[in-house]
Amino acid sequence: MNEKKRLMINLTAQMLAFAVNMGVSFIVTPIIDEISTELTGFVTLANNFITIAQIVVSALNTMASRFITIHIHKKNEEQANEYFSSVFFGNLMMAGIFLIPMLTLIIFVHKIFPVPGAYVGDVRLLWTLLFANFFISIIGSVFSTATYCKNRLDLNSVRVIHAEIIRVIFLVTVYNFFPKYVWYIGAASVLHTTYVTLWNVQFTKQLLPEIKIKKTYFRWKKVWELMSLGLWNSLTRLSQVLLDELDIMITGILINAEQMSALGNAKFVPTAISGLMGTVVGVFSPQITIAYAEGKQEKLLDVIKSSNRIMIFIMSIPIAFVTAYGDIFFSLWLPKRDPHQMHILALLGMGVLYVSMSIQVLYHVFIITKKVKVNSIVMICSGVLSTALVFLLLKTTNLGIYAVAGVSTVIGLVRNLFFTPIYASRCLKVKWNTFYADIFTGFISIGSISILGVISRNLVNIQSYVSLILVGIVVGCLALILNFFIILKKEDRIFVINKLLRRG
After folding, report:
1. Measured distance CA(304)–CA(103) in Å, rounded
2. How remote is the C-alpha of 98 from its chain's centroid?
3. Using CA atoms, how far apart are residues 328 and 325, in angstroms rounded to an integer?
4. How far apart are CA 440 and CA 355, in angstroms?
5. Label partner for 478 (CA 20 to 30 A): which of 221, 253, 277, 380?
6. Confidence of residue 504 (pLDDT cuts 50, 70, 90)
7. Residues 235 and 374 sit within 8 Å (Cβ to Cβ)
8. Mean pLDDT over all residues of the chain?
9. For residues 220 and 306, what is the distance between their CA atoms, to the nearest angstrom?
10. Which residues does 331 contact at the CB level (< 8 Å), separation at least 6?
11. Pick from 173, 60, 184: which is nearest to 122 by CA?
12. What sign does the dihedral 167-336-455-405 (CA atoms) show?
């Protein structure tokens, strides 16, 4: 199968899996909010702690796919086995290290955070299950390398879709026929992760039969090699948490649980869009890694530029829709909340995506070229500065939750405009301004679609999901036409038109 066809299959499967995941979250969030508007934040808060733990674990796992994939494609099977086994046993040890602190959090959660008295047991069980889900995911994470290595992400995506169906069936059943508890979310996550992990083990046997997990393959040297490089990437992710996710925790501690839940709900939309962005970028990662392993510089640049164009084509539409229709969406989705406040918070949380959507793939460039140190230092400085400014603004101004949500966006925009594209160009040894054209194209695309959205909402009175969806479909079609001319190159447009005419 040629690379373009494989790319489209992987992209379609990954996006479908993501859409199913977001659909489940979309349905479940209002249910939790109906139980108690204060509980939603504790789901987000637990996931934030898990994210921090995953950052530490990622010091070992981030570079694993790169090294295993490169050695598989270079036919160095013994080296691939050593990396694979070293990562597996290293993850087992890390799971043991995290057991005690997570148990401590579970036991004393009501003393650390403002958990409403009636919900202490529910929140404690929720956190127990979510942390158990974390242990399952890190122990089985190395097995996801198989579909990555062979560029068969579609196989994993299909199983993720199955897992999401299992999750939604479970949640719909328990929330309709049993007393409503928030811990059901944790139980559903355990079911989901266990199912996907078991299939990834099976895919490893099928796609990488040469890979065997053995103690004799374990090498402390490999663990240290991966961690010495991955540590910088972990610091990068930690800084991203300081920029994007600690705001939930800060709001809960320094403001109140109600505002914490409001911010958590508002961040659902930018988090969803960011997740979609990661899904799309992830489709290109195997191709980028393989092209780098083969030493094909021209092919590598072509994949990166294609990724940027496809990213803009896809991501500019949801970003522009939130910009234009956000308050209407929140008034329908969470009627108990202030839709204007939720819209502002969502825009503040989403602001950095206006730039990062056009250059997101460049972060993978730092990994494949092993140039992660400088990027990590910049991210650390950004995270520390962001957190310090939030505390300063909370003490010296009345901005409150808006200060918490907005500071990281401003700092992220500055970083993505003046550091990321320039340093990525240097790593690839191309002109410093190589990727600025993509950023400019992204601005034009989002701006044009947002204008269409504002015009449409002034022409149509949107008061229901049906009218919002219908208007969205019409504007979405117009947005695709706009992007067709704004983003695609002349030869790409000719190619698409010829394909359509042949089918017609």
Report:
1. 43
2. 23
3. 5
4. 9
5. 277
6. very low
7. no
8. 81
9. 39
10. 339
11. 184
12. negative
- Let me know: does 368 contact 289? Beta carbons within 8 Å: yes
Question: Can you say whether the dihedral through the CA atoms of 444, 445, 446, 447 is positive or negative?
Answer: positive
Model confidence pLDDT, tens digit, residues 282-335: 777 777 877 777 777 777 888 888 888 888 988 899 999 999 998 999 888 888
Give the pLDDT score at 383: 80
Is pTM beyond 0.70? Reply is: no
Q: Is the distance from CB of 403 to CB of 397 less than 8 angstroms?
A: yes
Length of the chain: 504
Q: Which two tokens stand for residue 156?
A: 């994993």
pLDDT at 245 over 70: no
CA atoms of 143 and 167, how far apart (whole Å): 21
Q: Which two tokens stand for residue 281?
A: 């970028």
Query: Which amino acid, one-letter code, is at 481?
Result: I
pLDDT (tens digit per residue) in 89-128 = 988 888 888 888 888 878 877 777 767 667 778 788 888 8
Phi-psi sector, 337: left (phi>0), alpha (psi -120 to 50), beta? beta
Checking if the pLDDT of 43 tops 90, the result is: no
| φ, ψ of residue 393 in degrees (nearest 5) | -70, -35
Q: What's 215's DSSP letter?
A: G
- The Cα 466–Cα 472 span in angstroms is 10
| Distance from C-alpha of 56 to C-alpha of 65, rounded to nearest angstrom | 17
HEC-encoded secondary structure of 384-408: HHHHHHHHHHHHHCCCCHHHHHHHH
Tell me if residue 30 falls in helix, strand or coil. helix
Helix intervals (H) in 36-119: 40-61, 64-73, 77-112
Q: φ and ψ at 2, to 5 degrees?
A: -70, 165
Q: What is the average per-residue pLDDT within 54-64?
A: 73
Q: Crossing angle for the helix pair 220-244 and 246-254, nearest 10 degrees?
A: 50
Place of tokens 């990555």: 148
Residue 33 confidence (pLDDT) above 70: no
Token code pair at residue 482: 């706009």
User: What backbone torsions phi and psi does residue 296 show, to the nearest 5 degrees?
Assistant: -100, 90
Question: What single-letter DSSP state applies at residue 464?
Answer: S
DSSP 108-164: HHHHHS---GGGHHHHHHHHHHHHHHHHHHHHHGGGGHHHHHTT-HHHHHHHHHHHH
Q: Tell me which residue has tokens 């600025």.
A: 436
| 34: number of Cβ within 10 Å | 13
Tokens of 324: 């234009």
Angle at alpha carbon of residue 7, lines to 3 and 9, rounded to 5°: 120
DSSP string covering 1-27, please?
A: --HHHHHHHHHHHHHHHHHHHHHHHHH
For residue 111, the tally of other CB atoms under 10 A from its CB is: 8
Confidence tier at 379 by pLDDT (50, 70, 90): confident
